[in-house]
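ZP: hey, is the fe (ii) ion complex queued? I don't see it on the tracker
AM: it wasn't, my bad. submitting now with these inputs:
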Amino acid sequence: MAQAQTKAKNVRDWPFTVRPLHPVLGCEISGITLEQAVSPALFAKVYEAFLEYQLIVFHDVDLPPATQVAFARNFGEVQVHVLSDQYGTKEHPEIYMLSNLNKDGNPSGKHPDKGTLYWHTDGSWRERTGQATMMYSEIVPDVGGETEFADMYSAYDLLPAAMQRRIEGRRAVHNLDFSRTRRHGEDLLTVEQKAKVPPIAHPIVRTHPETGRKAIFLGDHAEEIEGMAYDEGRALIEELNAMITPPERVYTHHWSPRQCMVWDNRCTLHRATGFDEARLKRVMRRCTINGDRPF
Ligand SMILES: [Fe+2]
């Protein structure tokens, strides 16, 4: 718990209560409502906690979709996903629904996005990648359907020196079509959608634009490595994705309904765990906020 305690000591003049969720990352914020958290008076302090802990959670939040989009806008420009026709709602194309319910509100047996089951960071396939994601839990299953998070700052710091040298200055090509086809396998991107999200190269070691710390930027959307034979790049990506997500450095979030979480996509990877999509219900609502082009 050494690191969590160190982090707790860093709590400055924050007018809310912070409880670390894991020695590596994540905290719960209490003592203020989410509405207060995004108010001009408090948002700068909440944002400090977001940068320090990389993931913040609020409990017992009443968050209709319109309010979610409005709150997310405090963090920045909210993305309209290239698959918003499929996952967005008519009223709010910024909302990306992850639901396994059919029209009648019963479990359909179909996972809404199997790509979420593999380590990734949201929007890494865009030129301007995801800054933050705001996720709200409407309905959660009793078993499974957790979200796991891995810290990419320490992932970089703990890499063997030889591996740090190997990837220094290297760029990986991120490609939604690649990961979607490989992992989801159905409802693939149309020609028009592919044209909107061509493959894009980003540094494997990026500098967080606000904290200035180095972090690994990789995950499941990374297809190949520039200047490296395709198979060699694939093997290195797979090796790295496993190295940077050791179980002891992963925080697993067991959701309750009505939680609102915001995580920093620039210094974390995440993935969902599976659940019985034919028997249990899981309905999550997500907004992703656009960030910068990684450097
Ligand atoms: Fe995600």
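AM: back. The longest strand covers residues 130-139.
ZP: great, adding it to the tracker
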